Amino acid sequence: MGVKIFEKEKQFHLFNSKISYLIGECRDGEIGQIYFGKRINENQIILGYQTLAGRPYCNPAEYDESYTKELACLEYPAFGNGDMRGSAYEIRQANGSRVTNLVYKSHVVYEGKKPIPGLPASYVNTDSEATTLEIRCVDEVAKVEVTLYYTIFEDYSIITRHVSFKNVGNEEVKLTKALSCCIDLPDHEYDLMQFEGAWGRERYPHVRSIEKGIISIESMRGHSSANFNPFVIMKRRNTDEFQGEAIGIHLVYSGNFIAKAEVDNFDKLRFTMGINPNWFVWPLDKGEVFDTPEVIISYTKEGLNDLSQNIHKFMNNNLVRSPYKNKPRPILLNNWEATEMNFDEGKIINIAKKGKEAGIELFVLDDGWFGKRNDDRAGLGDWFANTDKLPDGITGLAKKINDLGMDFGLWIEPEMVNPDSDLYRAHPDWVLAVPDRRRTLGRHQMVLDFSKPEVVDNVYYHLYDIISTANISYIKWDMNRSITECFSQGVAPEYQGMVYHKYILGVYSLYERLIKDFPHILFESCASGGGRFDAGMLYYAPQAWCSDDTDGHERVKIQYGTSYGYPLVSMGSHVSASPNGQTGRVMAINDRANIAYFGTFGYELDLNEVSEEDFEQVKNQVVFMKKYRGLFQYGTLYRLQSPFEKNYASWMVVSEDKKQAIVVMYKGLNTQNTEVEYIKLQGLEPDTVYTINDNEKMYGDFLMERGLGTLGWNEPWYRSGKDFTSRMFILNAE
Ligand code: GLA
Fold this sequence. Notes:
Layout: E1 2-6, E2 11-15, E3 19-25, E4 31-38, E5 89-92, E6 103-111, E7 130-139, E8 144-153, E9 158-167, E10 173-185, E11 190-196, E12 204-209, E13 213-219, E14 231-236, E15 246-252, E16 257-263, E17 269-275, E18 282-284, E19 289-291, E20 294-300, H1 303-318, E21 332-334, H2 336-339, H3 345-358, E22 362-365, H4 393-404, E23 407-412, E24 416-417, H5 422-426, E25 446-447, H6 453-468, E26 474-477, H7 499-517, E27 522-525, H8 535-538, E28 543-545, H9 552-562, E29 571-572, E30 575-576, H10 589-596, E31 602-604, H11 612-634, E32 636-641, E33 648-654, E34 660-667, E35 678-679, E36 689-692, E37 696-699, H12 700-705, E38 708-709, H13 714-719, E39 725-733
Parallel strand pairs: 21-22, 21-31, 22-23, 23-26, 26-27, 27-28, 28-29, 30-31
Antiparallel strand pairs: 1-2, 2-3, 3-4, 5-10, 6-7, 7-8, 8-9, 9-19, 9-20, 10-17, 10-18, 11-12, 11-14, 13-16, 14-15, 15-20, 16-17, 24-25, 32-33, 33-34, 34-39, 35-38, 36-37, 36-39
Alpha-D-galactopyranose (GLA) binds at residues 336, 366-367, 411, 478, 480, 526, 528-529, 545, 548.
């Protein structure tokens, strides 16, 4: 692993045992892309790189028609200098020009990886895990230095990139576009796989063909959003779960973003991703620096399962920071779907007690515990306990829960305020709003202006008071509406284009302060369910509430889709009541649990209200999860049958040593006399005999080549007359 440098040709080859990323100086000094894909010989040099013009175009060198930017593959293309495709950055200069030419100046290579100030980013545990290449380029006229950062990791088919801008002149310039990457590929025979949806149906995979022209996804909601996730895959047209080439790109960022695939008339593909340039204007004064968020670029030649497995391991080892990193997550009981805001201490203790009886480890008090918060019209922003509901406050309740033998967790929504709150009455100028204009409410609330440090400070002090005076071991950090009327009151017009980005930097800074003060706390992020499920958030909160839709049938799709880009252990997944609160669907408690096991696992209902039989099942489930959670949360995931294609779905996890595996099969609507399918398992040891559910024995190769027949689970399948059923198989090596 490392970076091979060809000093004379100014070419840089980042490689590990699996991938190669080869870039070099073009004829006019710009950095160009040469190759990205499966590992090739590190001694490959391309002489005369980018002498490409077929017929005269615009040429950077006077009277030399042999080189044009229009046909070049570039690493960080400028606007207006001969490349007619979309740029990666734009700098508005004092004279009004946006034209720039970046020219290579120097480079440095070192072991390890530096953090990005104020932003989430992947990291190394020891310097020897990765090598970083920094290439410094300069625009001599705008007097801006642009450094391209590349890190290659030894154990992963992954390159990370980010860019930093520095004003090295005397005059202010304005960044109006600063994307995190450009990936120029020599052909466009790819499909774009995006993860889209809305509240309650987050991250459904959707595949679009990449053809001549432009396709893109974006968010202008101020958060990454349930609508489009900041993770996409570009895959070869015939790539499936088990074979074929694919490139995954995550933006490690939680605010507005854009991901764009552009195919020019020469069939070359340009992919760019980063902060959405819409309403982004970042002034850079003399000496100032701006860092873009990071992108994680993953690669496979072996199908989407391989791509996801690589990402999962990378995120678990090199992105998540938490005392719970690579540790089993506590089984929790959350009161939201049981009580919403209608509770008092007695009711809460009663629910928690039953949870304790079932063996649950952590009780989480959700929304409604503070201020005048009896419904969603009041109280947000007033972070002091409502003593009508909780006479001994959070301190007292936490102690009572601890005395039951459970840990205590708390819900907060620090970025928001209700107009009907003491905080808003005291500081009406602390919300994002345009003077004299209507304010658009969402869930009866407004967004606090986290671009202002004094607002973040105020929220921090109140939260500090609560957390430091109670024994809290978990926090669910919610964010329940998108940003509208993005305007920072009292701030000069020329700084308004900074507000979206400064807002999310404010969120990150508050997380950072709380993590520093309370390093033992397990954070779970949430945004009306899965509206901010992104790689940026995982850096602060190692798990995220997947969706407010807790219906088991719906969760099959939501969690299956989420698994393309995010590890199982990051997915907040709970068993809730039946009929389900969102869909009204009835589903047996074990079927609900069979889906929820593949995540953090917990319960979202009042166990006092379930039947005795179901409660016995819950007790068994908790015992079962405690035994197998290492495998459920950290096993290697194989998606086998997609719920987006059929009435069935199946997937499995395999332990690192391949001695244990768990397979789940799920069926939507009940069918009669259906075809028998053999589901080919993956990732087993071919010559090992596996005992299936302590019963039948089969060789690994038989299970992988012939498969596990659906006939064997016919009994609940068509005789039961039930829809929405599942079957779980535990495989143990002999
Ligand atoms: C959001 C969350 C829910 C719950 C409510 C509380 O919708 O996604 O889980 O916490 O807020 O208001």
